[in-house]
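Hey, quick one: can you model this chain's 3D structure?
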Amino acid sequence: MKTIGVVGGLGPESTIEYYRLLIAAYQKRAGDRVLPSILIYSVDVYRGLAFLDAGQPDLLADYLAEAVRKLADAGADFAIISANTPHLVFDQVQTTSSIPILSIVEAARGEAKARGVKRIGLLGTRFTMRARFYPDVFTREDIMLTIPKDDEVEYIHDKYINELLKRICLPATRDELLRIIRRMKEEDRIEAVLLAGTELPLILTESFAGGVPLLDTTKIHVEAAVNRLLE
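Sure thing. Here's the predicted structure for all 231 residues.
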């Protein structure tokens, strides 16, 4: 049996969801009397965010690379980083890793391509929404990503860091997120929304909202991981 290594803690609440979903997806495919082999190394999300706030992505890459090394040393055959924002330095981490790392961005692009959507709204942290690591991958399949307006980006980031990372899901926050999605559908003509923050599905729990489908990157990433486990 292959062993998956999970870099968790990014944040803790979504790591819990990853663990639960990995087991559920694996048992759905392999049977309810078997369980996957999972190693989790939990890092400090606030330390990682501090590196980015300080403009020190190289320190974040080193921090994550060390976590992957520990998973490899513990016997993991491959790894996943259970968050979107750290994929800002994914290439650097993969370069130093002795085991493969499954990219949440590549997995999400594959799902978007399979659905045939060409214009997608991108929601996540400010770092994710304003960086190039998602657009650079998606444009290879001629898929355009659109981000919210500047004030909406700041709103989403604030709620993400100060509420969702702590699993605080307020109705007013949900209502505003849905308003942003509806506006993007009307003004930006998006065909879907990518929940490119693994805490976003904690508050946007449905598969369709604001008039468009919601692509849950946590579930997409988990399916890619289970595919690898069962190869």
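One thing worth noting: Strands lie at 3-8, 37-42, 78-81, 101-102, 119-123, 144-146, 192-195, 208-209, 212-216.
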